[in-house]
Specification:
CATH architecture of the largest domain: Alpha-Beta Complex
Distance between the termini: 44 Å
Number of domains: 2
Helix content: 25-40%
Order of helices and strands: EHEHEHEEHEEEEHH
Number of helices: 6
CATH superfamily of the largest domain: Spore Coat Polysaccharide Biosynthesis Protein SpsA, Chain A
Number of strands: 9
Largest sheet: 9 strands, mixed
CATH class of the largest domain: Alpha Beta
Structural class: alpha/beta
CATH topology of the largest domain: Spore Coat Polysaccharide Biosynthesis Protein SpsA, Chain A
């Protein structure tokens, strides 16, 4: 078997038994090491991750960015693959990443990666909800932010960023009820972190927010042309 690249994948978990085995196995198809940082799961997450080949480290939740920084420090290799506990590498992306390491270290220290929402919500091939994230990176070039809520990489000025073509499949929602639960949880967490706005500003948003949004989507985003 061809040796895996010197790459560590890390995954943060809490009660993620639904997808964790698939996530770990797909990551291990390309990463030499898979590290799961578990913050108090009460289901079979840790056991399933270990059985699939991951090293599990228990750590209380430090906040989104800080938990990632802790995960970075647990990894053996400098090149890291950041995965959520419901994100499965496509075989095409695994092959693409292997190609980056074929002649040594990758040419860039940071890579953009497409993330496509997988069924039952959305189409797996870059359909509804598709985004681009900086999932593959060298921790000597950039680190996760030291922040409670924000966990996306802040790219240093002047650092060139590469681009990967094949997607990660994000199995974000098991069903419609799971979708609503996640939206409610995330919106509540973010709302609690924001300072309350004065009542006059909130009143203005009630009256003018929707018209401005419709105008933006219809004109600036091109819906008048039938674009999505």
């Amino acid at each position: 078997m061809t040796p895996r690249p010197p790459l560590s994948a890390y995954i943060r978990t809490r009660n993620e038994a639904r997808m964790i085995a698939d996530v770990v196995r797909a990551a291990h198809s390309v990463a030499d090491e898979v590290v799961v940082i578990d913050s108090g799961s009460t289901d079979d997450t840790a056991a399933l991750a270990q059985a699939a080949g991951a090293r599990v480290v228990s750590r209380e939740w430090l906040g989104s960015g800080r938990q990632k920084r802790f995960a970075e420090d647990q990894c053996r290799h400098d090149f890291l693959l950041d995965l959520d506990a419901d994100e499965v590498l496509s075989p095409a992306l695994a092959a693409e990443i292997r190609g980056l390491f074929a002649k040594g270290e990758p040419a860039f220290g940071i890579y953009r990666t497409p993330v496509a929402i997988a069924p039952p919500i959305g189409k797996p091939w870059g359909g509804f909800g598709g985004v681009v994230r900086h999932k593959l990176y060298d921790r000597r070039v950039v680190r996760a932010p030291d922040h409670d809520l924000w966990d996306q990489l802040d790219i240093p000025a002047g650092v060139a960023v590469g681009a990967l073509k094949a997607p990660i499949f994000h199995h974000a929602f098991a069903d419609a009820a799971h979708l609503v639960m996640k939206l409610n949880r995330n919106s509540t967490t973010r709302a609690n972190a924001l300072a309350p706005k004065p009542l006059p500003i909130l009143a203005l948003r009630i009256f003018f927010g929707l018209p401005f949004y419709v105008a933006k989507r219809y004109v600036l985003d091109g819906l008048f042309r039938g674009a999505a």
